[in-house]
Amino acid sequence: MNKRNYTVSFNLCCSDVKNYCVYSSRTIREQLKFNSRPLSKLAKEVKRAMKRRTAVCTPIQNSVILSTKQSSSGANFRKMSAGWNRTIYVTGLVFCMLFCFEVHAKSTSTVLQTQNKLKQLDAQINTLQRTLNSAHDKRGVLNKELSETEKQIGEGIHKLHSIQDDIKNKENRITDLQNQVNQLNQQLITQQQLLANHVRARYQMGEYQPLKLLLNQDDPNKVSRILTYYQYIVKSRQQLIDKIDKTRMSLSESKEKLRVELIANKQLKTELTQHQQLLQQNKSYHTALIQSLNHEIQDNQNTLREVRKNKENLARLLKSLAQQSSTPTSKPFNQPSKPFSQMRKKLPVPIQGQGHSLRKMNQGVTFFAEEGTVVTAVYSGKVVFSDWLKGYGLLLIIDHGQGFMTLYAHNQSLFKSKGQYVHQNEQIASVGHTGGIKQNGLYFEIRLKGKAIPPLNWLS
User: Fold this and answer.
1) What CATH number is given for 128-307 in this structure?
2) 74, 122, 350, 357: which has the highest count of C-beta atoms within 10 A?
């Protein structure tokens, strides 16, 4: 009996085996439901499928005949053929097991996303709690400083009362001096009138009237009496002149004292005003500082509560997305020509138009634009969330595969619903300020397996 020996190319055989395993894995992928059957049962089904498709190897053997040589016996061929079958079976089983592990790894990616996001929220909560503790400590220090300031204000008020008393005394002194000046002025006027009368009478008597009176009198007693009267008039006139001079000096001194008292009183009033303003500034400063710190503490407390609520909402959302990702969909996801991981520095900006600005955030970036500006998808993918979420407003999340997701928050309106597939640059929403922000803008974030990555490193 003629016997043949078939020399088979090992590389060609391995290529056909790989194609066969891919065909088998696709068949199993269509029938597989995640976490629904034990691994042992899956292995049995794989074994049965491999046995049913063993015939596939026969044309492979016949098509790869390279040469025909003399052989010792046909038993060697049967032995080698059996070796091929075992190799195919083991290799297929290994590929299927690797596929199962890959499916399991993908099913756990969402869980890792949730855990990483929760860790980030826990870190933010711890930071806010430390900020609150620091603010409480600062408020305690400021309260002590405020008590010292209030003591100084009390002492300052006492000094203000003292200054006010001094001002009152000065004003009384000024009033007395003013009355004295008025009296001296009146006295001076009276004295000046008397002096004027004396001068007028002397003028009427004439320059030599006393000598004429002496020569015209015959009675010596009468002459003596007239001379006495005349001396009295002269003396009285001199005294009046002296009084006028003294009154003028007193009036000048009183006016000078009055001027000094008025200047001192003005200085006291200026000092009083400055002291009042200084005390009021100190009190207002510390009061405003305490109020600002109280507002800061209140805002941090409110923010802490909001972050905790957002953490709970996001945890529920990611848990739901993880459950949905573990369930196969009837419509296959059409992957683009390049995976998301190869799009670094190639993704378009999610805001259309030129009139926008951006600001870096802790985990993402905010694009500020006019209300209603179109928002587009940066890459193809499936919408896994399209709804309102506390702290994020109208939120849309797109799954791009390979663990990559993009997040679009604070939208005015959402154009896509959950479960829809979108293409790159397709309109998905419009810019707004939902979720409690004051300025119109889009918050954009890229996450890889739950961990936020810098989006500016991916945008063109």
Assistant:
1) 1.10.287.1490
2) 350
